[in-house]
Amino acid sequence: MSDEKNKEIILTGVPAAPGIAVGPSYLYSKAVPKVHQRALAPDEVENELARLHAAVARSERELQKIHSFAEQKLGASNAKILEAQVMILQDAVLMGAIEKRIRSELKNAEYVVYDEVSKYRRLMMESEDEYIQERTHDVDDVMNRVLRNIQDQKLVSRLEGESIIVSHSLTPADTVIFSRNQVLGYATDHGGFTSHAALLSRSLKIPAVLGLRNATALVKSGDILGIDGYAGALIINPTEETIEGLRRKEQRLKEFEKKLEGIAGLPAETLDHKRCELSANLEFAEEIEFALKQGSQGIGLFRTESQLIGRETFPTEDEQAELYTSVAEQMFPHPVMIRSFDIGGDKLSPEPLQEDNPFLGWRGIRVCLDRPEMFLDHLRAILRASAKKNVRILLPMVSKVSEVRKAKEYLKQAKDDLKTRGVPFDHHIKMGVMIEVPAAAVLAEEIAKETDFLSIGTNDLIQYLLAIDRGNTLVSSMYQEFNPAVVRTLKQIIDAGHRQSKWVGMCGEMAGNPIATVLLLGLGLDEFSVAPIVLPEIKKILRSIKFKEAKRIADKVLTLQTEVEIKDYLASVLREKLPDIPLEALDTSHY
Ligand code: PEP
Ligand code: MG
């Protein structure tokens, strides 16, 4: 009988730093110092100021130590993150205000530090800039450090032996301090791919999965954990079988990574010289450096929704133009597909709506067409980023030709506005449509006639085609990329696009599944847009097979009747032709 207490639990989050680890957990909860207000007698003031200065000086010494350690380990540019915290301590205006209040209000140092820094913090939280909001964690970290030092408390950051740190969130300083110990991995409730903790753990080469939501509630210190930084999974109390699987995955990936060294500079070209485009899916501009390092030849999907996080209003045309221009410039001369806001569904909603079925509701292009002013700002911003001619527009959630025609009318209006203003842009900017609603798949040829290209969004296409909620764990095993209905629909879309001489790409996750690569190549897909982490593997597969052969394999797949038959056949083809590919290791569908 399984022991309920030690039952295996799998949590999925953001794969923030690659790598595999198995080991005991260390639940890191930073006790926030308790602050009480106390009135001072006038003759206590000097002593109180001395306590404050000593605590600030000690905090500065601690941070300088962490900073120089980070510099050795991470290099000067990465260590800069910690300089920001030292600068807060050295801020003469802030420190002057604190001293003045201790003298004039006769209140204790802890209270005034807490109150004054909280004011600072509130202002930062009110900012519409997500970067500034993120930096409130630095302010909190510094404040807590000073408060702990005023109260003469020690922070325990020394681990007994090797551990996986589980925490609500991690600051850059935590990440660096812990890395001096035997840290096997990081798992947090909060934090995304671009948080500084994620950037640092990637630089420190420590596997990390962030944004797990309730890891700290489910893990106890000492629990055995498995962490899979490739797939973004944390396994609590993994079974022997799971641990063995993780170890195998680690071994195979290490061997395989060695073989991929040097592939980033090579083209995504088959043995019989058919060139494919291999590009990256990105949510944040900060991912560009990594995508280029992985050999990305463009951005096949730039999701624009991240700009809406923590905001109640849409960003202005200027704010949007600044971001898109920076992305286009960093990627130049490679192409960048900027997807117009895909709001609603599982993503952010522009207005607080209560929809019973948000996935079948007001989302994607529907919202943009209903809010012309917002859509025109958005289109003008994208156009402004296109002056160097490497930007394309991608429309999400299209289900009928009239939506495309309407969007084209708005694009024309946006172009006319910019012409009047004398702003430069690409007058021949290409606009394409995501094929991710079954109706659009059926109408793919008509849609292709109206646009410059198609890009298949399998994440949504599969959920709508198979009537399986992509986020529902109860039916996750039925979410099948290799269901024959999916494969035949993909063929119909690609053929329809090609009949109209239009380029057909794929930016859904299926494009990054190595088991699907040969099939998609054989079906004639022109572009694979994938998560940067899997890009070298996909390229390796494309470079290891003939297009002629892939076409034969795809033809055979089209005759098969079930998902299992198709998947087994494709896996066996790969095993035979490309024994190097660690298939079982890369397949993350079991999480
Ligand atoms: C898709 O649906 O396949 C897609 C790429 O879009 P998203 O995952 O952002 O819905
Ligand atoms: Mg989608």
Q: Kindly, what is the distance between the CA atoms of the first and last residues, rounded to a whole number of angstroms?
A: 23 Å
SS elements, strand count: 16
Helix % is 40-55%
- Given helix and strand content, the structural type is alpha/beta
Shape: globular
The kinds of small molecule bound in this structure are: phosphoenolpyruvate, magnesium ion
Number of helices: 24
Share of residues in strands: 5-15%
- Provide the domain count: 3
Chain-averaged pLDDT: 88
Quickly name the level 1 CATH class of the largest domain: Alpha Beta
Please give the CATH architecture of the largest domain.
Alpha-Beta Barrel
CA radius of gyration: 27 Å
Taking pLDDT < 50 over at least 5 consecutive residues as the criterion, the unreliable ranges are none
Largest sheet: 8 strands, mixed
Spell out the CATH superfamily of the largest domain. Answer: Phosphoenolpyruvate-binding domains
CATH topology of the largest domain: TIM Barrel
Q: Strand order of the main beta sheet, please?
A: 1-8-7-3-4-5-6-2
Describe the model:
The protein has helices spanning 45-74, 76-89, 92-105, 109-126, 130-134, 136-150, 172-179, 196-204, 215-218, 240-260, 288-293, 317-331, 365-370, 372-384, 401-421, 438-442, 444-450, 458-466, 484-499, 514-523, 535-543, 547-557, 563-577, 583-586, and strands spanning 9-12, 14-17, 20-28, 163-167, 183-188, 208-210, 224-228, 233-236, 277-282, 299-302, 336-339, 391-395, 430-435, 453-456, 503-506, 527-530. With 591 residues, it is an alpha/beta fold. It folds into 3 domains: 2-27 and 161-237, 3-Layer(bba) Sandwich (Glucose Oxidase, domain 1); 42-150, Orthogonal Bundle (Enzyme I, Chain A, domain 2); 270-586, Phosphoenolpyruvate-binding domains (TIM Barrel, Alpha-Beta Barrel), CATH 3.20.20.60. Strands 1-8-7-3-4-5-6-2 form an 8-stranded mixed sheet. The chain has an 8-stranded parallel barrel with strand order 9-10-11-12-13-14-15-16, surrounded by 5 helices. Strand 7 and strand 8 (233-236) form a beta hairpin. Helix 20 (514-523) crosses helix 21 (535-543). It is globular. The relative contact order is 0.09. The structure holds phosphoenolpyruvate and magnesium ion. Magnesium ion is lined by residues 396, 436, 457, 459-460.
